[in-house]
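does this look right to u?? FE3-S4 cluster version
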Amino acid sequence: MKSVYIETYGCQMNEYDSEIVKSILCENDFELTDNPDTASVILLNTCSVRENAHQKVLHRIETLKSLKRQNDNLILGVIGCMAQSLKEELLDDGIGVDLIAGPDTYRRLPGLIRGVEHTGEKAAELKLSRTETYADVFGMQDQGANAWIAVMRGCDNVCTFCVVPQTRGRERSRDPKGIVDEVKQLVDQGFKQVTLLGQNVNSYRFENIDFADLINMVSDIDGIRRIRFTSPHPKDFPTRLIDVIRDNPKACKHIHLPLQAGNDRVLEMMKRTYTSEQFIDLAALIRSEIPGVALTTDIIVGFPTETEDEFQDTLRVVEKVGFDSAFMFKYSERKDTLAQRKYPDDVSEGDKTSRITRLVDMQRRISFERNQAHLGETFEVLVEGRAKKPDQLFGRNDGNKIVVFPDNGASAGEFLNVKINEVTPNTLIGEEV
Ligand code: SAH
Ligand code: SF4
Ligand code: F3S
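got this back:
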C-alpha cells in the first residue's frame, strides 16, 4: 500500500477538501501517514489568495526536495487553488513537482498518482466542473470539537481583487440530503458542532431549499448542538436568515461579514456591489435583531489607487460598526484577476504597511472594548483543547470568541460554563462555574 502525507494551506474549505481527498485515497487502497519522511506520496493542498500563500508553499517544496533526493520514488503533488492558478508552470523542471490537481478533480487523484508511479511522467488534472460537489464523499475528519462541511463550491461574484472564482470555478450547491447524512455520521463520531462552508453561503440553493432552510434542516438532527457558517456576502443578506439565526437556538450568534473597504469609490472598483452605508445599515439591523451577536470581518488596505482619505473612510466604518474581530490584509495583486488587468498595484508598500498598522491598532482597541463588556458574564463553552499557557484549556463561546480557563480534565467536544473575569483583545479568561 502506498502511504500518503497531506499538508493543508489556506481556508477552511481547503481543510475540508483535504478530508475529502483522504476519503477518496483511502477508498482506493492508499493509506495515510503523519510522517512526510516515510511517505511515498506527499500532497500539498494549497492556497492562492495572497502572494505570501504562494511563497510559503514554494519554500516548502524547496525543503521537500531533499526528501526526493533520498527517495527517487517519492511523488510530490500540489493540489488545490495554487495548482489551479499556476497550472503547468508548477511542473517546470527544477521546481520538483510531479503532479498537479485542481479542486474539482480529486476523484481522479488515485489514477493520477498511479499514472505518475508507472510512467514516471508528470501529470496534471485541472478541469473545473459546473456540477462536482463531492455530494456522496464524506470528509475524513480528525476528532475534535468542530467538523467542517462544504455546502456549496465555487463563486459567481467578481470581486476584482479575488482569485477564488478562477481557482474554484462556478457556484454550485450540494444536495441537502448528502449534507444531512454527513452531519448524522459526524454526530455518530461524536461531533457536536458543524461549520457550513461556502464562498458565499447566502447563494446556497438546491431546488427549493435555500441557506436558511438548510440551517433548519441541519439543526433538526439530534445531537448537533451548534451550527456555524462562513461566509455570507453583505450584498444579499436575506432578512429570513437573520430571523433563523435569531430564533434557532442551535445557530451560533456570530456572523462573519466581510467589509473589504469603507470607501464607496474603492468598493465600486472592487465590485462588491454595496455601499458603506448599506453595509453599516445591515450591521445595525443584524445587531438590533440578534442581541449579543458577534460580528467579524475581512478588510483589505491598499487596493489600487486607494488614497489616505479613502483609507480613513475604512477606519470610520470600522469604528462605527465596532467589529468583535477582523482579519486584515494588505492588497496582494493576483494573476488573472480583473484588478490585475485593469489597475496597477500602485499603493506603495510603505503606505500599505502604515495603513494596516493603524487599522490593526484600532481594531485591537475595539476588540478589547467589546471583550471588556463580557467581564462577569458566563458563557457556555465548547472545549477545543489545551491552551498555550500551561495548565489551561481553551474553547469557544457561541460568538466564536476564544475562552481560556484552568484545566479541569475536560476533553475536546465537552460543553461547560465559564465565568469571565479577565479579558485581552483576543481572549476571554475565566473559570468554570
Ligand atoms: N468568499 C469569501 C472570501 C474568501 S478570501 C468571502 O467573500 O467572504 C478571504 C479574504 O481574503 C477576503 O475576504 C479578502 O479580505 C482577502 N483577500 C482576497 N483576495 C485578496 C487579495 N488579492 N489581496 C489581499 N487580500 C485578499
Ligand atoms: Fe472572492 Fe468575492 Fe467570491 Fe469572496 S465573494 S470568494 S471575495 S470573488
Ligand atoms: Fe481558500 Fe485560498 Fe483557495 S482562501 S478557496 S484555499 S485561494
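The chain has a mean pLDDT of 96. idk if thats expected tbh
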